[in-house]
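Revision sheet: structure tokens.
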Amino acid sequence: MVSALAFVSATACAPHAARSVANGELGPLPPDTAQVCVVRPSATASARAMPVRDNGRLVGATRGATYFCYLAARGLHQITSDDDDTGPQFLRAEAGRRYWLHQDVVELGGDVHAHLDWIEEPAALEMVDACEARVRVAVPGHDDNPSALPIAPAKRM
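Predicted:
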């Protein structure tokens, strides 16, 4: 399995087109996987990329009003965002399910902080509508094909 992710420049999409882009990603998932999508609808500190890790492994990053999705194996996941003062989010991923995280980025006294909160899909799709772009995440040579994405492994118990 390829462990490195290549972050390709964000693909521009008009706000009204964001939902159709998201809906295009909501098809069937590869066997034994879940999908986690991280949505950052605010342009606060838009020049600052905010990496997200799953069990310590880099799975994506947002920059400005963007979002991304990645695959996760069944089981326990500890998801963190850089500069998150509230601590990690935990997930027991079930195969075939989709999970949404809102990455709230704030700037306080010159410092940028982000924290993650679980949200339901209808609210997430509204946030996707506010996004200017979707961050493309791909394995080199596979051109953002969800079935070619590496899968974030679950924690071993």
